[in-house]
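Entry 14. Structure prediction run on the chain below.
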Amino acid sequence: MKIALIGDIHSRFAQAEQVVTQIRKDHAEAEIICMGDVFEVEKKSLYSADESAVEPEQLSDYVMNLTHSFIHTLRTFQGVIGNHEEKLKKLIPLTQIPENIAIFLDYPREIAKGNLLFIHGHQLSWVESGPDAFHPLIENEMLTYRLFFYGHNHDQRLFGVHQVHGEMLYHEIPIQLGRP
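Output returned:
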């Protein structure tokens, strides 16, 4: 079984489309799973001349691209919800959610496939494992999975996690891109 993960696209659909095209070229049999944060939702505020905050701008001024053709391709993948999709759910009344993005706002918080777990990661507690290196705090129930995949921190790292005397021990395993 081959699984390709894409995530934290943050509305960079042209770049994500190139990645998916390459995945399909090199590994046509791979199942693609979206790890959340399909959209970039950025709230802009207006300020008056004296720097005091003014009412936030309307939803149309939240930054996201709802019309890119790659959204149709993304709709064919399974995925988990990211924190940006959760922001959209809070900002848009259910009756006003555009049909082409509704699927992303209804993604589950996690996907379990046998002994694999996929989650965006924003709903977890995080710990610092070194300078500029953060990873989610692994809970006991996560140890029931052989592999746990997460997004959210925009970092490519692989950790082995073992519980010793009730304490979770993390060991970073070097990744060689392009090699199994």
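The two ends are 12 Å apart (CA to CA).
Filed with the rest of this week's runs.
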